[in-house]
Amino acid sequence: MVTVGIIGAGRIGKVHVESICTKVPNAQVKILADPFMNDETAAWAKAKGVQHTTKDYKEVLADPEIQAVLICSSTNTHASISIEAIEAGKHVFCEKPIDLEVAKIKEVIAALEKHPVKYQVGFNRRFDHNYAAVQKAVADGKIGDVHIVKIASRDPAPPSMDYVKVSGGIFLDMMIHDFDMARFLSGSDAEEVYAEGAVLVDPAIGEAGDVDTAVVTMKMANGAIAVIDNSRKAVYGYDQRAEVFGSKGMAASGNDSASTVQISNEDGVTGEKPLYFFLERYMEAYATEIKGFVNAIENDTETPVTIMDGLKPVVMGLAAKKSLAEHRPVKISELM
Amino acid sequence: MVTVGIIGAGRIGKVHVESICTKVPNAQVKILADPFMNDETAAWAKAKGVQHTTKDYKEVLADPEIQAVLICSSTNTHASISIEAIEAGKHVFCEKPIDLEVAKIKEVIAALEKHPVKYQVGFNRRFDHNYAAVQKAVADGKIGDVHIVKIASRDPAPPSMDYVKVSGGIFLDMMIHDFDMARFLSGSDAEEVYAEGAVLVDPAIGEAGDVDTAVVTMKMANGAIAVIDNSRKAVYGYDQRAEVFGSKGMAASGNDSASTVQISNEDGVTGEKPLYFFLERYMEAYATEIKGFVNAIENDTETPVTIMDGLKPVVMGLAAKKSLAEHRPVKISELM
Amino acid sequence: MVTVGIIGAGRIGKVHVESICTKVPNAQVKILADPFMNDETAAWAKAKGVQHTTKDYKEVLADPEIQAVLICSSTNTHASISIEAIEAGKHVFCEKPIDLEVAKIKEVIAALEKHPVKYQVGFNRRFDHNYAAVQKAVADGKIGDVHIVKIASRDPAPPSMDYVKVSGGIFLDMMIHDFDMARFLSGSDAEEVYAEGAVLVDPAIGEAGDVDTAVVTMKMANGAIAVIDNSRKAVYGYDQRAEVFGSKGMAASGNDSASTVQISNEDGVTGEKPLYFFLERYMEAYATEIKGFVNAIENDTETPVTIMDGLKPVVMGLAAKKSLAEHRPVKISELM
Amino acid sequence: MVTVGIIGAGRIGKVHVESICTKVPNAQVKILADPFMNDETAAWAKAKGVQHTTKDYKEVLADPEIQAVLICSSTNTHASISIEAIEAGKHVFCEKPIDLEVAKIKEVIAALEKHPVKYQVGFNRRFDHNYAAVQKAVADGKIGDVHIVKIASRDPAPPSMDYVKVSGGIFLDMMIHDFDMARFLSGSDAEEVYAEGAVLVDPAIGEAGDVDTAVVTMKMANGAIAVIDNSRKAVYGYDQRAEVFGSKGMAASGNDSASTVQISNEDGVTGEKPLYFFLERYMEAYATEIKGFVNAIENDTETPVTIMDGLKPVVMGLAAKKSLAEHRPVKISELM
Lengths: 336, 336, 336, 336
Prior knowledge:
The structure is a homotetramer. Chain A is α/β, with parallel strands linked by helices. Chain A folds into 2 domains: 2-117, NAD(P)-binding Rossmann-like Domain (Rossmann fold), CATH 3.40.50; 126-277 and 313-334, Dihydrodipicolinate Reductase, domain 2 (2-Layer Sandwich). Chain A contains 12 helices and 15 strands. The first copy, chain A, has helices spanning 11-23, 39-48, 57-62, 75-87, 102-114, 129-139, 161-166, 170-173, 175-186, 203-207, 278-299, 307-326; strands at residues 2-7, 27-33, 52-54, 68-71, 91-94, 119-121, 146-154, 190-198, 213-220, 225-231, 239-246, 249-253, 262-265, 268-271, 330-331. In chain A, strand 1, helix 1 (11-23) and strand 2 (27-33) form a beta-alpha-beta unit. The longest helix of chain A has 22 residues, at 278-299. Chain A is globular, with a radius of gyration of 20 Å. The model of chain A has no long low-confidence stretch (mean pLDDT 97). Chains in contact: A-B, A-C, A-D, B-C, B-D, C-D. Chain A binds chain D through residues 145, 147-148, 150, 152, 154, 194, 196-198, 200-201, 213-215, 217, 219, 223-225, 227, 229, 231, 233-236, 239, 245, 247-250, 327-329, and chain D through 145, 147-148, 150, 152, 154, 194, 196-198, 200-201, 213-215, 217, 219, 223-225, 227, 229, 231, 233-236, 239, 245, 247-250, 327-329.
């Protein structure tokens, strides 16, 4: 049984409390910390079986019973709390992105070199049943050498403008998951990135200096070409698909929906929309990633999403940002 | 090149003129006969390349250049014209059903025994790409021993009440195709039939002594159980599906539609309806069945749908009718 | 918070322990009773948070803190324990079937009339996302008047011969779920049943006096015709589909599978098989049915599957058994 | 009835002979010309109903009965024969590409300005039922403003190396169809092109100076971003799909296959591969495009694929070639 503390009681922090308490039998949440901890959240946590809540995340780091820390606080604190936790000898699960700056992530890497605890980054989609099945098909050699990777990733609605302004932009906030997918599904690193972007959903996003629609192509180290498309708004729901095409065939995944039911009538044959958003689509994946983290601790094996897996998509995102700004293909090596 | 005459210039007769002229390179239509032949039809036939049109079908039988006759006249004339054509030494393609009475079909069989020409019955669905692929999977042993056969067959709209009254009823007019499919897909004959029927679409059909909704279960000689459902009205179009389930798996066919396009929007994910009706769904099958007939003539081989294949579904239909009337399972042997 | 005791720690009893402990926040399992309770099961239950385990189910009935009892013991004890629990003033959730004899179920009904506690029968499929969505479409009027209901239900492998011998036969053990579905999806009761059956999977099943393949057609009170097919062995997994066809269209549900991934290669385009069996397919439904039960207790409303819903499929199963034995359609009224 | 002559009796010339003779009732092929005309081809043409065959295409242009010419000769002759035909007052249907050089296409445009006959370019995919349905959904406003267009286009096997060497390269030979699709489906012109390419299928293609795998992204004038992926070898057959994503939803088309049959067994649920190649997939589209051409002649309306529609994909292909060579995004205006 691994005892964990969770830092950050926002949406994703609560997801982890919920999934650990109900779906991860070999872990328990001892402390939930959040600077804005209030009675309501504390009561909710208690009902889930969390022993203690606090406004001070340092209580988590100081508790000798806590073996592992889940960092679910705001992005700008990920790196510094990571380092504190590492130095306190805690295993760390850190939500993505570790940081928006490469230098800060390298500081975390340096801390890990001194204190080699387990460190996992929250790229939950690797644990989604559909993406995992595509990856398994690729890893099992079923599609041969990888030639083309295509990833569609579209949100049902844009985030608030407040969030857009601090998010780091579409490439670091949203497409970062798809950059991870491109690596995960192709089994290879990106070498060069070219980004197209447009403001088609909401002019306010453009005024904030971001784009809301983007297509990025990449040359991967194994020769494959990868392409990702993102939109901040798909009216039909959360569209999350991938296909990997290679010398022996293609593996493609579709969306999940609430049921398999199809209605045939005078208007056509209609099935359900994709599940609405990430909480619906990836709830199981959130539990599975924590199971993977806990197993790595218990078995003293490498975590399934390492700090390098956390670093590289940030670099890819920065490269995409630079590509869009400078209107040219950008090599990953320029950013590293 | 096989020279044919076509007797009957109604809808199905015209289908055969059209498909032979455009899709069957080794056949030509020399004469089209119909008691109601008029200038319009004659002009249409001429434009298609038919040399001659007439009101008198006996001209077809008397022409020594005519090698084969397609009987597309009204059902009550099928058997007698079949016998005349057989006695005239013509190969015969006869639309289904040969007759609504077993005795009359046996007269045709007797004629064939004396004059062994080629004889094919117009069960076009055997030549449909979907049903043919299911049957091939079964025949190739891909599903092992057949355990259950399910056939759904629903028309987009009921025929006119005038037609309903002379059609012989749903079992002999509509389900007869599905009885043929049950034999074709299972590779076995029916031994016993049980019919359920209801008037749910149009009370006028009930007043005419027929049902518009029917489910028939059958014991097949190979042990399989077959079930057919029919409706005279599916608002979403012509619904024509089959599945064969067996010891090694299942082969199932769906409908054809006008395109593969799917629209995803706030209402769901919507694909096209099935093709509207038999002319849309089976146009290629009509050409393929005639190719099969012409090839049997040219190669002197058995036709792909023999007179016995024509007889048995009629008996199954009569058994279903009797089952519904007497409210009990009816053995095929009771009718033969 | 509703406190429950569970009687029976076999497969389904454990499913309920598991799902209540992890997925039903407003219920807790206080006692788990089983005549064969052993250390392993007791330890397992304790780890799940169950306070107490016992060999004596009467401890459950005697505990004043227990508000509701889940009866998951062997079928032949369902009715008598139901009555004891009712008389003890406990709400009852009883696994299907309540009993294989109508008279015994009527005794439970009589007990309920005297002691009106909540009583729910374990027809879990009503809570499956796919079936529930079909039913909702029907109930919402999307398909108009119901004309035809088709239910396919095939297990991946037959049960042990020991189980087959005491199961009550395919109609009462397996098809009983589908009889419930026929009522649930059509919104109507059966009036007459006709059964076909065959021994195609395993001769030993025939030697035990049962069939392993069955097709049942039914006349429903609302005029619809329903047809169910069952097989004890589908090599491709648990096949659970339904379609409801009516005056305005059709609602059809398919199987669930482990992922949406499709592999395209030289052999075709291959997707995943259906989920293997009921634990995989219906795990969520088991939690949802208990939520429904607990909500009925908390809100003092009717349970979503009443004792009459438990009785009627038994009668349908007995009618099907009689139909097969006597080789004729059997009216439900003959059995009631 | 429009009388046509066909110049070029290679594969595509024969496709047009076949489809006009069997599927275009208001056109007839009078002359088929090919410098390599031989007895076999002449006999084949005669059997199809073509009156005359010749080695000299000038006979076609000189025949006063010929109203329209189909130019199906080798690409390097398209422009010059187009001009000759235009000057002879014939309507022209010219296979794609008109030429690999913009200047030569402009000469044809100049000829048309002097002699305004009908001119149609052979972008057959616009007439494919699937692409046409996507385009109709877009044109009907069903997906709102276009944001992202994705086109997958993969051949089952590379052409011969002899062909590769004279083809103009993947962008002008193969992707040219997809450039046309990007314009057709988005309803907009490309403004800028960025190309990625790789040699992953056959090193010999690389040695010939071409790539066999390519991904091109484009900025369209209406703001949309389009992306095309091409491979010279998809082992599962001809993969031809498109999706258009916009403010109100998405329209996506899939492949056609030989049947709808799905086999469920221990290995999964397997459907048929896409139809093998363009002759299988687009045979109906070839007939439909000629019907469109003939109708434009008969009704004196604009052809459905104008010479400007022929020019623009060539420019897009040249821009893609330049982009790949210079490793930068290339504006369409640089090439015009």
